[in-house]
């Protein structure tokens, strides 16, 4: 199979099924490859194309990707591979939905970002967001999965369940700096 | 300006003008930030949205991003941030258009990839390709810019000129491993 076909979700109908296929494809693409930049680049592409294959609200996802720990500054996230429009480079743990997920090591599912105190507007189009911490070993956070949607209520507990599984796969599949 | 607006090329008409704006936006996004993963992630987004704002053939670009040197294996490229469908993880210098650009340190402008001996088909949809080496210091290659198009003849000397300028900006703007 050529690599691009990993993002072909045609004929897969439900969100559960799309996420299940996404996880299988991610495991296939990570097989034998532990470079975190390489694997996050392909994972961002899989996420983007998975959402675009689904009905609303998922197809309105307008950003899907990753932040990792900034090697220069403790308790700060730095932009990593993503698909979507250009994004904020640095996010302190004290700021926004991403900072909250990293500092608490807990998934943040935000139905309306405008109601989230300290929300960082990298893109004025974003209306809802889910951020899942990537944890390794002894509960150490190495990064986050961040997905934004251009409509309110873009994410639910199905997204939470599968993105937490994906975070587990990614955490274990890469050598982290 | 919110970061996402950096990829707004509305009202910019010619390819020259779009590339000129892309370079200005890239320099703005790189300002004060030398992390190569962060900067390549935003640069891939700028490239993608620049092509999508242009008339055919440029709007048919189906992959835009980067490969860097594989820290594990000499004379091999490894996938870095991109926008588009999932891609080949590893490319030896001896293979394909990307390998040729890295090993020769020369831009490769390929009107028809099917006529290029040893072309690597990460995506069967790709029909033309331009690959520009990113060089630093004493002509050392640190990576490549790779852009694929779903139609033949997707790139010309205007693309070459501006992507070589972008490669110069990127090379100087980042700390490379």
From TrEMBL, chains A, B:
It comes from the Eukaryota. Residues 65-173 form the GAF domain. GO terms for cellular component: cytosol. This is GAF domain-like protein. GO terms for molecular function: L-methionine-(R)-S-oxide reductase activity. Belongs to the free Met sulfoxide reductase family. Gene3D superfamilies: 3.30.450.40. Signal peptide: none annotated. The lineage of its organism: Eukaryota, Fungi, Dikarya, Ascomycota, Pezizomycotina.
């Amino acid at each position: 199979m050529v690599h691009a076909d990993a993002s072909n979700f045609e004929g897969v109908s439900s969100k559960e099924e799309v996420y299940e296929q996404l996880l299988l494809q991610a495991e296939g693409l990570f097989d034998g490859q532990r470079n975190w930049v390489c694997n996050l680049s392909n994972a961002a592409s899989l996420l983007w194309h998975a959402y675009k294959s689904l009905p609303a609200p998922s197809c309105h996802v307008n950003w899907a990707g990753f932040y990792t720990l900034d090697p220069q500054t403790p308790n700060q996230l730095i932009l990593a591979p993503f698909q979507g429009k250009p994004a904020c480079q640095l996010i302190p743990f004290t700021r926004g939905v991403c900072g909250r997920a990293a500092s608490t090591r807990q998934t943040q599912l935000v139905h309306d970002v405008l109601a989230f105190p300290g929300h960082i507007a990298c893109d004025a189009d974003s209306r809802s967001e889910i951020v899942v911490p990537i944890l390794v070993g002894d509960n150490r956070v190495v990064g986050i999965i961040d997905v934004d949607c251009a409509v309110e209520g873009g994410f639910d507990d199905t997204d939470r369940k599968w993105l937490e599984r994906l975070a587990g796969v990614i955490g274990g599949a890469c050598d982290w700096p």
